[in-house]
Design goal:
The protein has 13 helices and 12 strands. It starts with 8 loop residues before the first helix and ends with a helix. α4 (54-67) runs parallel beside α13. The model has no long low-confidence stretch (mean pLDDT 93). The protein is of the alpha/beta class. The strands form 3 sheets. It has an 8-stranded parallel beta sheet with strand order 1-12-9-8-5-4-3-2, with helices on both faces. Strands 6-7 form a two-stranded antiparallel sheet. Strands 10-11 form a two-stranded antiparallel sheet. Its cofactor is Zn(2+). One of its GO terms (biological process) is methylation. Zn(2+) binds at residues 233, 296-297.
Length: 313
């Protein structure tokens, strides 16, 4: 049974909107920031902007809302106490920066809504990246880091609590690579009182760690806070089967936001290979049960605008 989220009216409104039809997510935050001229070579990636240039984040979120997105995903994917400590930022200030990620996304939503005056709700998803993201070595595309469940919980729980307290509409627990980290994160989100979606990296129908997607989907769907389950930052060709499986296994709405189809080269810190993102495929995804649909890395506002046209159609 899904929690009613009576203490989170905007989160409950998002859940209701999903029940009525597909809700359009944004695309890759990092590529939009790069297009705005931001330097993302730091190990903190887009989280650096929280420290140095938060207004750039507002502009990036605005670009996606202007393209038709209804949900902005915050710049907290790679933000953590351990990561900011390498820049001399203490835990208290890191927690303020995590909360700021929600605030700047909310500001963008309010600015666009005021300018357009269209009365459409716009929501904020607080991004929770995997442990591998803070390592900045591509580990989230492999999983099985060699750390214990207790170490993973010690890493994840404080920032989840801070992000939940910052008032997002939903927690986006994303790019989860393996069963162990999924189990830890599922335990950490219990009782937070905020809707949660879980999305996994996928390759050849398995998690990045090589486990059956059915196992991780079933595991996280047992948590009352979880309102959608699916995949992200995978090749577009992985989505249709994964979405159908998620809907079948969990009975929940599915979430789908693949990357461009290019491959991440961790050593070169760049993307290689051809792009294969086709907004037209979204009709198949929604037919299979996807109710949160968007793009991940290298999928920009233009593609999100095309997705909006598909979903509206």
């Amino acid at each position: 049974m899904v929690t009613d989220f009576g203490g989170s009216p905007s989160g409950a409104a998002l859940v209701a909107a999903m029940a009525s039809g597909p809700v359009l997510l944004d695309g890759g935050l990092s590529n939009q920031l790069a297009d705005q001229g931001c330097d993302l070579s730091d190990a903190l990636w887009s989280a650096r902007l929280l420290l140095d240039e938060p207004r750039q984040l507002v502009a990036a979120h605005r670009a996606y809302f202007a393209a038709g997105a209804r949900v902005a995903t915050t710049a907290s994917y790679q933000a953590s106490r351990a990561g900011f400590a390498t820049r001399g930022v203490d835990a208290a200030k890191t927690d303020r920066l995590l909360a700021l990620s929600v605030e700047v996304a909310r500001l963008a939503a309010e600015e666009v809504s005021a300018e357009l005056g269209d009365g459409r709700p716009r929501w904020v998803a607080a991004s929770v990246g995997p442990y591998g993201a803070v390592l900045a070595d591509g580990s989230e595309y492999r999983g099985h880091y060699g750390v214990s469940a207790s170490e993973l919980a010690e890493f994840h729980r404080p920032r989840l609590e801070v992000l939940a307290a910052a008032g997002p509409d939903v927690l986006a627990v994303e790019t989860v690579p393996d069963l162990l980290e999924a189990a830890v994160l599922a335990d950490c989100v219990r009782g937070l009182g905020v809707p949660v979606w879980f999305s996994f990296g996928a390759a050849d129908g398995l998690t990045r760690g090589g486990e059956p997607l059915s196992e991780v989907f079933a595991l996280v769907s047992e948590v009352p806070e979880v309102v959608a389950v699916g995949v992200n930052c995978c090749a577009p060709r992985e989505v249709a089967a994964a979405v159908a499986l998620a809907a079948e296994v969990t009975g929940l709405p599915a979430v789908a936001y693949p990357n461009s189809g290019e491959d991440w080269d961790a050593s070169a810190r760049g993307w290689t290979g051809p792009a294969a993102f086709d907004p037209g495929l979204a009709a198949d995804w929604t037919a299979a049960g996807a109710r949160l649909v968007g793009g991940c890395c290298r999928v920009g506002p233009a593609a999100i605008a095309e997705l909006a046209a598909v979903l509206d159609g």
